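Hi everyone, sorry if this is the wrong subforum. Our group has a chain we'd like a structural model of before ordering constructs, and none of us has done structure prediction before. Sequence below.
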Amino acid sequence: MGEKIFVENWQQQLELLSFENNDRMDKAYICSPLRADTQQEFLQNIFAARAYMFYARQRLGFHGRAPHAYLPLVLCDFEPKEREIALKFGLELLEQSKVMLVCGNRISPGMVGEIVQAAALGKKIIVYDETLCQKVRKIVVSNRGPQTLVTLDQTHPILAHSAPQECF
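Answer:
Right subforum, don't worry. Here is the predicted structure as tokens:
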């Protein structure tokens, strides 16, 4: 895995990366949970999405896009109309992305819709958790997508963790 990636100022580094010209960089849609049972878990999911974005950039060479890493600051996920706006925005980003990275170790209802859309668009879907990979394949196949769109990558276990910024 190499040197530690989540150093003290990693979030500031992530924000500064947004000012760089990344036109030549492939875009990756980060698919990870936002919904949670508690406010603390909800915040943990937001910070995990940011960590996945940072890791995708620093280690995989992708411009990671996770709208749920920042949209909850301006749109309330618990207000149906605002959630709908956020979901539409996310699907637009997905359309413009080359690949979907399914991160974490569980699938939320919102993620199911994103996975179905990625399959409909023929996007490559990379999953980092073996159990999750089987679930993603079932979602894709049950929506008439080819299971060959889904690949398991266990060379980046940090992307299978629900709180990557805290454990490494």
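For your construct planning: The chain has one domain: 24-167. The mean pLDDT is 90.
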